[in-house]
User: Fold this.
Amino acid sequence: GSSEKLPRRILTFMGLAAGLNVSCGAASILWAGQLLTSIAPELAAISGLGVAFYGICGGIMRFLGDGLRARFGGVRLMGFSIFVAIAGFVVLGLAPGFWPSVFAFTAVGFGLAVTFPCLFSLTGQLVPHNRAAAMGYMATIGGAPRIVLPWVLGILAAAYGVSAVFAACAAVSFAALLLIVFSLGQLKTRAPA
Assistant:
């Protein structure tokens, strides 16, 4: 194995951002049907469309992700994607109606799909001679938000309604974006090895 030192501070922030991103994706899947059913109980039979649109659009973005990352750069792609996800979450937090919310899940699916792979790619580039350890560390750190956030979102849903879950995901996605920006700032100030 390589003895290349891990930049733990940068990897910690990137891991937290990845964990927040995954947590928001899980919330989209877990709470979509409940949100859509609460908006339009008469359309409960098709409330799975939110998850379907989220999944289809996320899958398309994952499929196209490597090409988009090569064309636009991972950092630019992540920034744009997270803004798309935030916009989708804001719409879902407002719960304007059944069909606008279904289409907001499309935006969330597009927006969240490439951030996680881009962060892992960036991690591999950051520590080229010790990629496995760097990715393992980042993934471990990313577990903390995935444990805590679903619990917090459940409390918010119980206290304020299901749309509060998605309003919180907009804020959490923005926090992930700030963590990524901070990580990139740390990369620029990091002394070359």
Summary: Residues 8-39 form the longest helix (32 residues). The two ends are 18 Å apart (CA to CA).
